[in-house]
Amino acid sequence: MDNGKQYAIFKRKGGKFYYAQFKKADGSWTNAVSTKETAKTRAEAWCVNYLQENAGRIIDNNRVTFQTFSGNFFDWKGEWATDKRATGKRLSERQCIENQRITDRLLIPVFGDLRLNDIDKNVIKNFRNDLFNKGLSGSLINKALCNLNTILDSAYDKDLIKAIPKVEKVSNKV
Q: Who's near 83: CB < 8 A, 6+ residues apart?
């Protein structure tokens, strides 16, 4: 697979999209990720752009921690908020600050050192139930779960996780 480049692209049998793998520092290759491109030249351009955006660092999907991915996730000038505003969805700077505060206070202490791939339905259920047992309001718990879902949804869109675990919200009528 070594073509002298930091990446390799290929199509899966019967597939229409090109996939990419990137060379890691130890010489091994990352898991394949979809470029979502059907033309080889656009797939190569996607790989070059990916390498430039990440300053040559290859993100190993299996090692990305929650804290690394969500550190400033809700920053007003960050990717998530910019995308929301660009698509015409209502969002205020105050909402971003509140979402980041909830993430820093409730999510990162629990999920921070976990790899994104290790966050599953049971981990999230335990998190929800622990917050409930601590006497936090249902509204605050549900905001935390909503933030978690938003972060995991973004990780899914970036092919960092294979699925988004779903967990029931807390009832406000307890």
A: none
Q: Quick count: other Cβ atoms within 10 Å of Cβ 69?
A: 19
- Tell me the backbone φ, ψ of residue 56, rounded to 5 degrees: 80, -5
Beta bridge partners of 85: none
Tokens 């790899």 -> residue: 115
106-139 tens-digit pLDDT? 999 999 888 888 899 999 999 999 999 999 999 9
Q: What are phi and psi of 34, to 5 degrees?
A: -75, 135
With a CB cutoff of 8 Å and minimum separation 6, the contacts of 18 are 9, 10, 11, 34, 35, 37, 38, 39, 40, 43
74: helix, strand or coil: coil
Reported as half-sphere exposure (CB side, CA atoms, 13 A), residue 123 has a value of 15
Residue type, 29: W
C-alpha distances in Å from residue 27, one per residue of 6, 14, 20, 98: 10, 29, 15, 42
Terminal C-alpha separation, the chain: 58
In tens, the pLDDT along 68-120 reads 888 889 999 888 999 899 999 999 999 999 999 999 999 999 998 888 888 99
Query: What is the pTM for the complete model shown?
Result: 0.66
- Residue holding tokens 């752009």? 49
